[in-house]
Batch of 2 targets.
Target 1
Amino acid sequence: MAQVLKWGWRLSGFLTVVLVFSFFRKSNELKPYHVNGFAQGTTYHITYYAEDSVLRRSQADSIFHSIDSSLSVYKPYSLITRFNQCKRGIIADRHLKKVVAKALEVSRASGGIFDITVMPLVKLWGFGPEGKTKAEPTARQIREVLSYVGYRKIYFKEDSLIKKDYRTTIDVNGIAQGYTVDVIAGFFESKGIRNYLVEVGGEIRVKGSKQPSGELMKIGIERPSETVDDSNPVLIKRIRVKEGAVTTSGKYRNAYKSGSKKISHLMDPRTGYSIRNEMISATVLAKDGITADAYDNVFMGMSVNEAFAFLKKHPGLEGYFIYSGKDGAVADTASAGFNALLEK
């Protein structure tokens, strides 16, 4: 009898171990969670893998609201609007300070191709918060605006962002969504989430893989048409990225025609005119969204040859470019690092 009880104890203990092991294994399984919505004038899609939900729609919206309250030129109460309306400067919060600091860094690296003080030019050519107009400015108007455009006309003094000319205004829309995906990625990292994809308006930050398959997440790249109003771009490439950010800038999304000329919202702050070169779109892979988003704008202001020369000097960047060839046909090309990620 004693032996039977002893054996029964052993069996019970074995079952307990099995049940406990099964419980922990089940609790450690990662499930997919999806958060989708509308923010920053566009859509966002977030996928992450976790044991339990760590990000709700309301939390995501709160993050967007915090960023927009600092960086949106479309919000009359935002910090950037206050800077644009003031004559001297303001105390910058963490969002504005980080984004402007990065913008100035990229402006110096690109020789002024990327410049957040370009906002008066953008408005002069009929783009921006006030809406579009198809009336071209005169050369005199452009020269006047250029007198207070230029990244050297703003600077930081401790925590304050200062302008040298009271007419200088800034617009960080060309870099803000890349920064936004970084902020959300930082939220996931703080919660111990290591597998996620964050997409805001086509700008993407990704880390890890799908669970439980372990398959790397795919990112699609669009090919624009040659028409000005392109509402149905074609998905032509897919890449698989383990970690990093992928962003795209293009002339085809926001443009109008003036006579035989195509006027893009992308302005060259050095000349005052809309960028005119063979580049149609530039997709950049970098370690984070703010870097990729800034440099996709830089490459739009370069020729394809200039873009590849720049990439050689900046090994942390990879690029994929769609451009118009000498015969007018649309072509594409990519850096070796980017090409290695393309789905065959």
Target 2
Amino acid sequence: MKAMVLTEYQQLEVTDFEQPEIGPTDILVQVRACGICGSDIHGYDGSTGRRIPPLVMGHEAAGVVAAVGDKVSGFQPGDHVTFDSTVSCGECFFCRRGEINLCDNRKVLGVSCDEYRRHGAFAEFVAVPQHICYSLPKDLPFEHAAMIEAVSVAVHAANRTPVSLGDTAVIVGSGMIGLLAIQAIRLAGCSQVIAVDLDPGRLELAQQLGADVGLKADEVDVPAEVKKRTNGHGADVVLEVVGTTVTVRTAVECARKGGAVTLVGNLSPTIEMPLQSVVTRELSVFGTCASSGEYPACIDLLQKQAIRVEPLITAKASLQEGPAWFARLYAGEPGAMKVIIDPTIE
């Protein structure tokens, strides 16, 4: 089969690659769409240590069942499917609690680190265990289905956030996950959603997707503007979707006394937290990681267009065009959001 392989850092080659074999409980999927994730771009140059070459990256994917293992039930060749990016073991303490995103033995598709190597979906075929697979409606476009992994991150973050009907939410960071979080937190019950970013194009898109207002962080005093729109109190809930000291501080300062801050972004492994502000104003701080069983809900939300992803898709490209798109995204292509790779395109 053909695959796009990270042969060395910042070097991708489309080449012949051994088609994965499937075990008795595995499914072989013909990939029809796989999104280039920000984590792939960050790993492309070796800075994360989680994309050690040689590796087939790609974990945001959907496709058609090509073959199933002897013990697979509920799936058959021809079915449209997507799958979780996290391969959970199903047996550890956390999996048995239903917290599959916290699995002690979790592996992520398209990741290679010191502990394991798991080839991903920038290829014609990928093998995945049936327990992380989900059936798709035949009328849901594959490129939309490939966005379900990203949607599930936003929906899980919204589920982790204590929202009451009529609350005000601030989303700090209007990148891909931030734009999805805007839609998810609105569905969760927030009647006012305020988007924050440095990019005016992203703020415009944020308003198209449901934000009431967009605040350009380098032009206004964001916490002060939030207070103006909340009777001087601050936001009930704030989702931080970047992961730096500056943006976390902004998130904390935007929250009202007794409010909640949900940390979604993790760009920096460590940050400075304004501890006294958190403690003396009795804020609740929540971490959120990946997703934990939200895929069926996300499929339904996409099919009903309650969450819209088409405006976030910048381009659809072939495997052969993949290396050039990686280079463009790594260089910071202006206005680019999600690029979807379809290995069936010639």
